[in-house]
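From the pipeline queue, job 12 of 40. The input is one protein chain; the requested action is below.

Action: predict structure.
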Amino acid sequence: MKTHDHIDNTMQNASHAQSQSQSHSGESTITDLGSKKSISKQRTFILIISTLVLGIVAGVSSGLLSLLLKVVENFFLGFVESSSMPGAFNVNRWRRFISLTIGGIIAAVIWWLLRNKARHVPSVKKSVKGAQMPFWQTIVHVVTQIFLVGTGGSVGREVAPREAGALFGGLWFQLMHRWGLPSEDRELLVAAAAGAGFAGVYISPLTGALFSVEILLKRVNAETVAVSLAMSSIASYVGGLIHGTDAYYAVPNSPFSWQILAFSIVASPLIGIAGGYFSRASSWAETKKTTGMHILWQLPLVALLTGVVALWGPEVMGNGRALAQTAMNYSAENSGVTVVIALAVLACAKALLTTFTLKAGASGGTLTPSIGIGAALGAILGIAWNYWIPGTPLWQCAMVGAVALLSASQRAPLMALMMVMEVSHLPIVALGPLGMATSLGVATSNLAKTTAHHNKPPQSF
């Protein structure tokens, strides 16, 4: 009996111990769940605050960079660009030449010092992946880009506000990381801030968000879209308060018809091929960019060459706005062979000068140069089109060319489409023909790239 009693007691104790263990395990699980919920709430709160703060900071920095461009233009060229006066057309030709030459010399010296005597400034993509952007070096690098464009250098200025946004995004994350924001969120904040910097300059929230999601993050979910779009929207509003919200390209309000859709189907594949080659040229220039002592003579030489061309064609100066607006201002009724030749020469010159400027050591973008080159090609084809189908607005043909070449050269169709729509304040009905131009431009760009790859001579090993 004692043995049975002992066994019963042992089983009861074991059962009691198991029950206590399960009870403790359950309490531990509940505690863990509660802790995770608390962390999740804290992270969400920090992301909301970060979106607000970085949106404001990116908008302010972009607004200040836009004002800096106006100051440089006014000092060196005696004019300030706008949609009604997009280029230095009324500036004395020799002042244009001198401005470009001096700007090239100063920018060359600054970039040589930055790249050889200071900490390296990583690209936005590398910053998103974790590279730290040194503060003062990045600020000088960003300001130099705006300075070169303001003096007339043939390169885009959209990289500067993106780099400024990425810089502040990284600094803000370091602060928030101490308050519990996980390391995985650094990529999101830096990418969203870079896109917001772009949005603050061109007042284009959708473009800024798509740049973050489509190009930098390459990850589409509710969180990345919400943070990127909200941050770019705030930056656009703040930037607009500083430098205005006028359309970057001034275009008429004529309706889009079936004619422009038909033109888009015919012209976009041809312009897309040109965009593919421009993309290859600019990629080559970035890969072979001069960084050593040679920048001290190569960049001033290219700036001087740009100045020589600008003696007769000021449309090649700056980031491409002047060329694009010029192409959009023509009408089919008043355009003939002379206009076609002029636009063709200017488009080729702009493509070559932008490529040479990047190769010679300048930092900058190719977004707005792509729009300028594409608009010129679109207008050229539009003039020919109007001989067969009269009545197609030439500015719409230029828009088709701009979005086709931009999407082909940047490999980002949605961002390209939204950028042209937003910066020109186009109506929603423009999405049809411009969407078609985007699709066909990218498709033929891929075809041109594939053809070029197959035509390469075999390598010897």
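Job complete. DSSP finds 16 helices and no strands in the chain.
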